[in-house]
Amino acid sequence: FIAYAAHKSFTVYQMDVKTAFLYGPLKEEVYVNQPDGFVDPYHPDKVYRLKKALYGLKQAPRAWYDELSNFLVSKGFSKGSIDPTLFITKHRRDILPVQIYVDDIIFGSTNPNLSK
Q1: pLDDT digits (tens, 9 = 90+) for 43-71
Q2: Of 95, 115, 102, 106, nearest in space to 68 by CA
Q3: What are the residues facing 78 on neighbouring strands?
Q4: What's the alpha-carbon Rg for the chain, to the nearest Å?
Q5: Looking at the whole model, is its pTM more than 0.90?
Q6: Residue limits of the Reverse transcriptase Ty1/copia-type domain (predicted)?
Q7: How many CB atoms lie within 10 A of CB 82?
Q8: Is 99 part of a structural domain of the chain?
Q9: Do the domain assignments include residue 85?
């Protein structure tokens, strides 16, 4: 990505998704104990079933990636066949690549208006 951006002389933008791991829906049922300080005094032995991923959950990065991947594909991006974390969309002769690394994203375009 960076080499291509340098070759095409376009600006690379960076963003960090602060709450990335809280957005991904889980594909399987996951139960957790009540956290310290939040134990229900009337039901101390009950557990919680998660609806979405939490930080520290081993499924969280994959759930986030799947959510973001589905969003980008729905907006017309193609997922890389060699690198599934690289998404590309083309507009006429211009290209907009998006590279994902966990909750960090870099992107740019041969047309600056596409990066806005």
Answers
A1: 999 999 998 888 888 888 998 999 999 99
A2: 102
A3: 88
A4: 19
A5: no
A6: 2-111
A7: 5
A8: yes
A9: yes
